[in-house]
Amino acid sequence: MRIKRDALLGFLMVLPSIIAIGIFVYGFIGWTGRVSLSNWVGLLPNYEWAGLKNYTNLLFNDPRFMVDIRNTVIFTVLFVLGCLILGLFLAVLLDQGLRGEAFFRSLFLFPMAISFIVTGVVWRWLMNPAQGSRISGLNLLFDRIGLDSLINSWHATPTWGIAAIAIPAIWQMSGYTMALYLGGLRAIPDDLREAARVDGASEVEIYRHVILPLLRPVTLSAMIILGHISLKVFDLIIAVAGKQLALDVPAIYMWTTTFDGQFYGRGAAIAMLLLLSVAILVIPYLYYTIRTEAEL
Q1: Residue ranges of the domains in the chain?
Q2: Is 20 helix (H, G, I), strand (E, B) or coil?
Q3: What CA–CA distances, in Å, run from 31 to 24, 36, 265, 276?
Q4: How confident is the model at residue 1 (pLDDT cuts 50, 70, 90)?
Q5: Which pTM was predicted?
Q6: Would you say 227 and 84 are in contact if contact means Cβ atoms under 8 Å apart?
């Protein structure tokens, strides 16, 4: 009886949260899905059934959405790889027993404490594409130290400008990746490393054949977290460069379509496609994690 009473009390404690999530998360997802299947244009609601017209137009007849997908792929690949490589490098350095490790660990983690808006404002000046008499930021630094070949237009570069946006994103999130890898490194028993050294393995071989394979779960977790961040990127691009077609991504397209153009049906369809892309990335990982924990 006491167990049932405690279970009922616990359920009542979390019931308000369940109701709130049901309404403000899943309820709004359902409403957005319904709007995406309508012809709603303008401020007045119009739930006239349109079927999958908004989705087919986006995927097969919308050149701007194709640009968005291309930019998202470029940004995601550079952002995820950059964070993984830099984060692993910093974690390996800190794992060597570096003096002042606590200070450097806090220093590397600090960028994560600020928002993408703040990061974008700072890097908008650092990556100022202006040249000539208006040169500033990193371009000015390159000019002063004689590295004129590195001066470029950054995010104003045609076609590949989105790659420059990945630089501030990597700067902000590499410290978080470093923390993940450092935790993974500290969880590896020293006995494994000593055993490899006894067998004649060099430090490079130890990392290649022993440590890195054991860090695969950490790498997978980092890729999932960073991947879903990159798919939803919005504020960083707006803060650095504003609304530019060359730097357009689905989140920006959704905003301009819905609130600037008042094409609510199409905007809702973009939102649902974003949700689907994140779900495709996250749900298999959650399933794998739950199955692994059950086997343990």
Answers
A1: 37-295
A2: helix
A3: 10, 9, 11, 15
A4: low
A5: 0.90
A6: no
pLDDT at 252: 95
Element (H, E) at 120: helix 116-126
Task: Report d(CA 214, CA 45) in Å as an integer.
Answer: 54
The position carrying tokens 């490098």 is 89
Phi, psi angle pair for 15, to nearest 5°: -60, -45
- Contact assessment for residue 154 and residue 129, using Cβ atoms and an 8 Å cutoff: yes
Paired residues of 38 in beta bridges: 49
Calpha distance 270→257 (Å, rounded) = 9
For residue 296, what pLDDT is reported? 62
Residue percentage of the chain with pLDDT more than 70: 98
Domain 37-295, CATH class in plain words: mainly alpha
Tokens of 116: 């993408």
Residue found under tokens 């594409």: 129
Q: How far apart are the first and last CA of the chain?
A: 32
Residue 191 pLDDT class (50, 70, 90 cuts): confident
- Residue located via tokens 């237009």: 153
Question: In angstroms, how far is CA 292 from the centroid of its own chain?
Answer: 25
Position 257 pLDDT exceeds 90: yes
